[in-house]
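quick q for whoever's on today - can somebody do inverse folding on this one?? i tried earlier but teh output was garbage lol. tokens:
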């Protein structure tokens, strides 16, 4: 007799109504549902996505968070899940998901926590008191899933969970649609203007003002071919970024799109020639994986788990954060060398296809669920 499918309760971004694209968890959850995972496990979904950008103040988030916790308790009682998978952003979201993990533990339900974003590590390092509180939260889940090896090192050694409780599952947003775009990409050496794409939150910590300063300098460089920097996203720095465009040197080379939906994002990746992400901190950015899948070279800062995705000189150029000079030099190098753009773009496509596709992640999630439930101890290539 065939063994029954495991039942997995997932708390993530599953909005019932269409919302404008915002956040890597939303993208990851959508892609995961389009994989084979729903056929291999019985899924129960709880939506914890924010309806506004930026999210509302903490006090306004308390009631929805409490309702989600109550809903999770009901599912623990009535649906009897084998495993709880929690996607958590830093801050209130992580506290909420930690409470859910603690409740699941009381019911004997195994828990996989998937923290997203680099701010959680920064918060841990703020003070001894905060580190102690977070360490208690980190020890609640059965497994702490890590976006990359930098985070595995943090949880396993600095927090002290040990490697077996901290498997790596790389982000899985190299979709078939994007990989097809990358496979079909034609790298024409005389294309102009060159389009540089930024995908993400428009925040100072994302390096947005270093990017604008870079655009200003490159617009005055006689040797640089025509270019445009397209910024797709929104955030607290958007108004200030718009004011920067009063400078005529920027107005002609920078376009601020605001948030765009999935279809528009795919089209922008199709049109772009390279992706730039000069963040001060990151987890493992979906934007980089999506760009690589679409065959684009990447300019990114050496932070978080980016090193697990971008190999300097292979599929992109790595620069230090908060360094407009290095950003200018990296973009100039790619602007002036079409063969370098092609070599890096093709290398990135192969990396994305082999390491960052949804089916690979689905295999790992199923294997991990089997392991924690005592069904299977083999995890293949989880780390």
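ok took a stab at it. sequence:
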């Amino acid at each position: 007799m065939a063994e029954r499918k495991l039942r997995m309760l997932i708390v993530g971004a599953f909005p019932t109504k269409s919302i404008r694209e915002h956040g890597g968890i939303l993208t990851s959850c959508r892609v995961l549902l389009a994989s084979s995972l729903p056929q291999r496990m019985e899924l129960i979904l709880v939506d914890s996505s924010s309806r506004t950008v930026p999210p509302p103040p903490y006090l306004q988030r308390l009631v929805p968070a409490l309702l989600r916790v109550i809903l999770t308790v009901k599912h623990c009682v009535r649906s009897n899940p084998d495993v709880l998978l929690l996607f958590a952003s830093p801050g209130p979201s992580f506290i909420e998901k930690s409470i859910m993990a603690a409740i699941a533990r009381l019911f004997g339900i195994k828990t996989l926590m998937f923290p997203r974003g680099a701010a959680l590590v920064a918060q841990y390092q703020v003070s001894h008191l905060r580190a102690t509180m977070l360490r208690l939260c980190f020890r609640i889940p059965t497994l702490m899933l890590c976006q990359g090896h930098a985070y595995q090192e943090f949880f396993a050694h600095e927090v002290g969970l040990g490697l077996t409780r901290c498997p790596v599952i790389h982000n899985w947003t190299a979709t078939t649609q994007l990989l097809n775009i990358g496979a079909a990409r034609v790298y024409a050496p005389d294309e102009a203007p060159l389009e540089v794409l930024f995908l993400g939150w428009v925040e100072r910590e994302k390096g947005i003002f270093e990017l604008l300063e870079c655009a200003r300098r490159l617009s005055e460089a006689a040797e640089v071919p025509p270019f445009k920097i397209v910024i797709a996203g929104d955030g607290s720095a958007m108004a200030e970024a718009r004011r920067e465009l009063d400078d005529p040197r920027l107005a002609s080379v920078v376009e601020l799109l605001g948030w765009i939906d999935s279809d528009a994002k795919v089209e922008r990746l199709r049109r772009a020639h390279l992706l730039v992400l000069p963040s001060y901190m990151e987890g493992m950015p979906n934007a980089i994986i999506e760009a690589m899948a679409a065959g684009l070279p990447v300019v990114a800062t050496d932070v978080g788990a980016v090193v697990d995705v971008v190999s300097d000189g292979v599929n992109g150029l790595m620069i230090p954060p908060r360094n407009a000079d290095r950003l200018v030099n990296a973009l100039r190098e790619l602007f002036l060398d079409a063969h370098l753009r092609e070599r890096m773009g093709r290398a990135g496509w192969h990396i994305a296809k082999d390491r960052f596709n949804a089916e690979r992640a689905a295999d790992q999630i199923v294997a991990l669920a089997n392991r924690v439930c005592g069904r299977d101890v083999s995890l293949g290539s989880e780390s």
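fwiw The chain has two domains: 7-172+357-372, 176-355. also The first helix runs from residue 24 to 33. so keep that in mind when u check it
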